[in-house]
């Protein structure tokens, strides 16, 4: 597959599938940080050494197919255009750090984009598995199988006492970062998040925005993940996160029921007003669009809006980001041009969805 095929569609194939509790947990991610024994870590490596890592990893992992993921394609970051990198970030296939700060990095992708292996980010390898809904255990099992397959071809930097050696001390040990992307509009509307999020941080977990560290929590979407790996087993890390996520799911469902019972008219007005704006506006900024889409997604999940699937909103959350808008336009757009195209795209996509339902 070419890079254009990977960036041409907003929804990755894995995102089109349903998962457990997918009305609240949009996706689960398992990421493993690994380094190669015989090479300097990326932060200290020269350009020649970085390219040598890419070649070594690419040669080792693309010579044969692995039953679990099929074949992998290698794409070098410095051969991509700026907007191509932005699209891959918007699809969560690479990190903002790899796109913006790694001059000599690469990414290996499988056909349905549920697996990506970043090369020369903060570590030599960042093995990432993505699954729809709340599936951390399944994601961990899949990541471990891929990790075992990779280790048959490459030698990791590993210490018997400390575990896997990484650039950042918070990843030493298992090198595992487990995370979920959650849609929590009712908790936001009922002003409970101000109390809940600090409590989550005190449990050793981190709450971030949609694109991870340093990003804003747009559209009531929050990424919740473990913070430390040293001294904990992979199973303990996942179980701790699962326990918190289960509580959040319960609290979000309770908040939704509360809104329906005590503020139904106001909720219906908010949901349908947002749908009306999305269906008829001629210009709309990214921040407003994601908030309106969040409201409409809540309306769909609660049965207040009929004839639209949740996936159409997942698609529009990605499709209306700056990278995708410019990818479809085939040119660099000014902010006003992006706002106009965003509004047009949303109107047309909603109209198409309604037409398909008739």
UniProtKB/TrEMBL annotation:
The known regulators of its activity are described as: Appears to be allosterically activated by the binding of pArg-containing polypeptides to the pArg-binding pocket localized in the C-terminal domain of McsB.
Which cellular component, as a GO term, is one annotated location? extracellular space
Q: In its keyword annotation, does this UniProt entry include Nucleotide-binding?
A: yes
Q: Name one GO biological process term.
A: phosphocreatine biosynthetic process
E.C. numbers: 2.7.14.1
Entry keywords, A to Z = Allosteric enzyme, ATP-binding, Kinase, Nucleotide-binding, Transferase
The record's section on Gene3D superfamilies has: Glutamine synthetase/guanido kinase, catalytic domain
Q: Which Pfam families match?
A: ATP-gua_Ptrans
Q: Which reaction does it catalyse?
A: L-arginyl-[protein] + ATP = N(omega)-phospho-L-arginyl-[protein] + ADP + H(+)
Per UniProt, residues of the Phosphagen kinase C-terminal domain are 24-255
Motif interval(s): RDXXRA motif of the pArg binding pocket involved in allosteric regulation:
338-343
Protein's name in the database: Protein-arginine kinase
Q: What class of enzyme is it?
A: transferase
Say which family it is in: Belongs to the ATP:guanido phosphotransferase family.
PROSITE patterns (UniProt xref): PHOSPHAGEN_KINASE, PHOSPHAGEN_KINASE_C
GO MF: ATP binding; creatine kinase activity; protein arginine kinase activity
Functionally, this protein is described as follows:
Catalyzes the specific phosphorylation of arginine residues in a large number of proteins. Is part of the bacterial stress response system. Protein arginine phosphorylation has a physiologically important role and is involved in the regulation of many critical cellular processes, such as protein homeostasis, motility, competence, and stringent and stress responses, by regulating gene expression and protein activity.
Instruction: Report residues binding ATP.
Output: 27-31, 92, 126, 177-181, 208-213
